[in-house]
Request: fold
Amino acid sequence: MLKNQRAVIAGKKSWGNDYFLFSLEAPVISRKSKPGQFLMVKITDNPYPLLRRPFSIHARNKHNIEIFFQNTGVGTSMLSQKQRGDKIEILGPLGNGFHIGERSESKKASLIGGGRGAAPLYFLACELVKKNINVTVFYGGKSSEDLPIASKFKKENIRTLCSTEDGSSGFKGLVTDLLETELKTDTPSLIYACGPEGMLKSLSKISKKHQIPAELSLESIMGCGFGACWGCVKKIKKGNTAEWHKVCEDGPVFSAGDIIWD
Ligand SMILES: Cc1cc2nc3c(=O)[nH]c(=O)nc-3n(C[C@H](O)[C@H](O)[C@H](O)COP(=O)(O)OP(=O)(O)OC[C@H]3O[C@@H](n4cnc5c(N)ncnc54)[C@H](O)[C@@H]3O)c2cc1C
Ligand code: FES
Reply:
């Protein structure tokens, strides 16, 4: 049962004007959440922007949940100006989330995050580690400023390999190239990923080539977040046919082999 509530911003951290981390007091949503699920956040009580914006659940503890977001437009910019003590309306937890405990009995998982796509992977990594699964995080960005939460993974003793397109930190190149390099010597039993569409498309190919199952969290512009508007659909394979599926309800996480890329 999803919940709509006004949550107090209990903590705020920022990295310049680009990346923000909010801790929200939301004990009921926190208890129900699983990695890969998301919230729809009401940006303002004013009419513009009207639509709520989707954000992954980045972390949780007994009382609070965290969201980690990049300032990319009007909604995220307005959200970034909220302060500790302000209240925001959130709806969640939404979506299916990553599968853990089924296929990931396999003991080695690679988590691939591109830019803000690393947001849901922190919660996922912490849950996998609790299940004694060996986790490596591959975290890629355009430059070192795009990897603000690398230290959070490292603090949890999670093996974290970084890449940047400009070479300012870690491997120089795309995070998928870094993964391919690693795959020459080490093969995970499962890949989980979230990030830009180009990265996810490449990962689908890598998953097929190396026969490693992959779960990919897709982004889509969302009107409602709970299946009412059909604004978020993507083509997904069902047996031999292609069907339109709602990213908000049937996803955002899909098996790489089921996604039909345009
Ligand atoms: C399930 C899900 C989880 C997400 N989790 C996170 C997260 O944890 N952290 C984070 O930073 N972002 C996340 N996003 C993306 C985030 O929702 C968008 O960046 C945000 O809605 C942009 O709002 P805006 O008003 O700032 O941008 P707008 O001013 O509306 O648009 C600015 C740019 O962002 C693009 N955009 C708008 N909405 C989306 C969207 N839903 N997905 C991708 N691009 C979009 C527009 O096409 C435009 O290019 C998630 C998206 C989905 C669907
Ligand atoms: S966002 Fe409305 S149906 Fe998915």
